[in-house]
Amino acid sequence: MLLSNEVPRLADASAALSGRFVTLVLTRTFYNKEDPHLTDKLLSELPGILNWALDGWERLQRQGRFTVLASSKEVMKELEHLSSPIQKFIEEECFLLQKGVSPSMSYMSLGPSGAAGKAGPTQELKPRLGVTSALHSQR
C-alpha cells in the first residue's frame, strides 16, 4: 500500500510496475476535523463493515480483477506516463502501421544551435542506448 498526496514517479520504462497499481482517489480531507471517537463508532459498525468486505471479495472473485473507478483511470494514466515518459511519447506522437507493413523511421536530431532537424535520406542518426532500451521495453 502506498499513500501519497501526489502521483509518485517510478522509474520503469516498461510501465509494468505502474500497471500493477490500483489507485483510489480521495477528495475529502479530515484535516482539523478528526473524530476522536471514530474507533468506537467503527467498532459498533463491525458487522456491516464485514458484510461489505465480503460482498467486495465475492465481486472480486466473479470479475477476476478489481473494479477500477472512473475517477482513478486518469490518475493511473498519469502514473504510467510519469513512470515511462517514452510510453507517453509513443501514445501521443507515434502511430501503428498496418500489420505486415514495415515502418520507415526518421530520427530527429538537434543541430549545434539546438534547432531541431530531420536526418536526410543518406544520413544515419544513431539513437542513444537509453532511448533504444526504453523503446524495446514497450513491446
Secondary structure layout plus pairing:
Blueprint: H1 38-44, H2 46-63, H3 70-83, H4 85-93, E1 108-110, E2 116-118, H5 129-136
Antiparallel strand pairs: 1-2
Helix pairs in contact: 3-4
Give a structural overview.
The protein is mainly alpha-helical and 139 residues long. Helices cover 40% and strands 4% of the residues. The chain contains 5 helices and 2 strands; from the N terminus they run ααααββα. It has helices at 38-44, 46-63, 70-83, 85-93, 129-136, and strands at residues 108-110, 116-118. A two-stranded antiparallel sheet has the order 1-2. Helix 3 (70-83) crosses helix 4 (85-93). The radius of gyration is 23 Å and the shape is elongated. The two termini are 28 Å apart. The model is unreliable at 103-129 (pLDDT under 50).
* Percent of sequence in beta strands: under 5%
Straight-line N-to-C gap: 28 Å
Number of separate helices: 5
Shape: elongated
* Estimated radius of gyration: 23 Å
Which residues sit in consecutive blocks of at least 5 with pLDDT less than 50?
103-129
- Approximately how much helix is present in the residues? 40-55%
Count the strands? 2
Structural class: mainly alpha
Task: Return the string of H and E elements.
Answer: HHHHEEH
Strand order of the largest sheet: 1-2
On the 0-100 scale, what is the average pLDDT? Answer: 74
Sheet having the most strands: 2 strands, antiparallel
Supply the key terms:
two-stranded antiparallel ribbon; mainly alpha; single chain; 139 residues; 2 strands
Q: Quick recap of the structure?
A:
The chain has helices at 38-44, 46-63, 70-83, 85-93, 129-136; strands at residues 108-110, 116-118. The chain has 139 residues and is mainly α. The chain has a two-stranded antiparallel sheet with strand order 1-2.
